[in-house]
Predict the structure.
Amino acid sequence: MKCANCGAPIEANDEVCQYCGTRTAYGISMLEEHKRHEQEEQHRRELENLPKIKYVSEAFVIFVYVITLGYYAPYWYATRMKPLNDLDSGTKLPAWAAGIYALVCAGIIFSSEIGDSLGLSPEMSQEIFNYAFGITFTGSILLAFWVRRILQGYAAKFMERNIAVGSVASSAIMTVFFGPVYLQHSINKMIKMKLLAPQI
Ligand SMILES: [Zn+2]
């Protein structure tokens, strides 16, 4: 092999020409590999510094939602509360809100037992059930919007607020009807946008 610049002979593992200092083809490929390695390292460091939150596929969330008859929702809020609050987005999901929500959800399951133990008639138990159901329905919508606000507030650290609102959990209708499924979808999207790191 010869140097492309001065024509001097080049050894196979020379990165630069010994005579004129011109980088050899081998030297160029080594430099590129070094740059690529450097970029990978930087990317890894960036991910390490991002807040971590669980990545769960939307299909899995829907599956668990169905087999638990919707009781995955209080679990989802309870387990996401800490990582969401750690995002420091300016909005916090208060423990009491998620707690009351989980309690009322449990109340639905045990409404007839609760009614029996209080000596209530089946009609009264049904009434308790209806109220509890109404509260969880309203509560789940409130919690979903709360989380949506946290995610959008966090995204607004990286982009303009109106862009964040338009690109993270942007649909209010989806937030109402699909709650945690839609929110998990939004979190997954933020992981893909490299705003969040997936928790292993
Ligand atoms: Zn040369």
Notes: Residues 115 and 122 are 7 Å apart (CA to CA). The chain has eight helices and two strands. The chain has two domains: 1-49, 53-199. Residues 3, 5-6, 8, 17, 19-20, 22 surround zinc ion (CB under 6 Å).
